[in-house]
Design goal:
The protein contains 15 helices and eight strands. The longest helix is centred in the middle third of the chain and has 24 residues. The radius of gyration is 26 Å and the shape is elongated. The two termini are 27 Å apart.
């Protein structure tokens, strides 16, 4: 495929940013970064703990330059602890800190989540922490060092399952696929042309499900009448439901349950999600003009505000696209100084 060489991954995560291409292995590069740090509010880095100290780019050094700086370090395993020196990757952390064990079909092997969800949750925790640090700075005038890591954030997002283990003192109940360990039926079922997720989350909703499936007699069947009985007879009931759901297409079942007040959903692929009527109605796909790639579609910001409209102010940058601009406007260098730095290979 011919193109300018920009990856879809890069385009997906780097909008509204400016690119300064700089080598901090050169003292002149370190000086530039320290000047930027002296003026900025927030610095985010994700190097192995301790590796920036030899360049004078660690928190202690930069705090002397800018006491109000909020310095966020994102690592695999944090600044302390026996694993702190390890390089961290999402899939490794999913494996070691519980997520992979509880993800996958009941009798199948552990699997990773389809996106790098631990990377994403760590980024979200970090951004929340930065906002909190900004509020604290408004009161104290002081910045601080934020130590955020994949392993801690993954442990935190075990949520109710972690709480159950801690309160009970017992191991978790393992993988459940799309099903729920204590609610039946609450899982995906095969249709004539795909899959649909049905949620009979309580006895009333189970009754709606029975009527929609054309099996009203299940509502009074002693094996299925209350949720505890349905859990005890999970295998047989789920098999009977799937015999029925296989007789119609996903869309036919969606039409049957529309407006009935019971939770249900088609299981869509990513392309269908991005062209979904609700996705489009919520303005979750937007088009922007990229200097080299031309018009590109991007996923929009997911949060709506009553007083503010977040926008994609600029498309993802190309490497070093804003080097001159940043050095000129934020560091105060002249065109000649920038030219000399480029000749030395400090910036590009």
């Amino acid at each position: 495929m011919e193109g300018p060489g920009e990856s879809a991954y890069f385009l997906g995560v780097n909008r509204n940013k400016k690119s300064l291409a700089l080598s901090f292995q050169d003292p002149a590069g370190v000086e530039i970064l320290q000047k930027l740090a002296s003026k900025c509010d927030i610095l985010v880095e994700n190097y192995v703990p301790g590796s920036l100290k030899k360049y004078g780019l660690d928190y202690e050094t930069l705090r002397q330059i800018n006491p109000a700086l909020i310095y966020a370090s994102i690592t695999g395993y944090g600044q302390t602890g026996p694993y702190s020196s390890r390089a961290g990757y999402d899939v490794m952390v999913e494996a070691e800190f519980g997520l992979m064990h509880i993800t996958g079909s009941r009798d199948g092997p552990p699997v990773k989540v389809g996106v790098a969800v631990t990377d994403l949750t760590t980024g979200l925790y970090t951004s929340n922490s930065i906002m909190a640090a900004l509020l604290a700075r408004a009161k104290t005038g002081r910045g601080q060092w934020i130590d955020a890591c994949l392993s801690d954030c993954q442990t935190a997002t075990l949520a109710n399952i972690a709480s159950s283990c801690l309160i009970s003192g017992k191991k978790d109940s393992g993988r459940w696929g799309t099903a729920h360990p204590s609610i039946v039926p609450y899982k995906a079922f095969e249709t004539k042309d795909g899959d649909i997720l049905l949620g009979g989350g309580n006895d009333r909703l189970f009754g709606i499900l029975c009527d929609g499936l054309g099996r009203p007699e299940w509502k009074d069947d002693p094996k299925y009448k209350i949720n505890a009985q349905r859990v005890a007879n999970r295998v047989g009931l789920e098999a009977e439901i799937e015999k029925t759901t296989k007789t119609k297409t996903t869309q036919e079942w969606l039409d049957i349950f529309e407006g009935k007040g019971m939770p249900y959903a088609a299981i869509n692929d990513v392309f269908t999600t991005l062209t979904h009527e609700h996705t489009l109605a919520r303005n979750m796909v937007v088009e922007v003009e990229h200097e080299e790639c031309g018009p590109i579609k991007m996923v929009n910001s997911p949060v709506k505000y009553s007083e503010t409209s977040p926008t994609i102010r600029s498309p993802p940058p190309t490497l070093g696209q804003h080097t001159d601009e940043v050095l000129r406007e934020h560091v105060g260098l002249s065109d000649e100084q920038i030219r000399q730095l480029k000749e030395k290979g400090v910036v590009r």
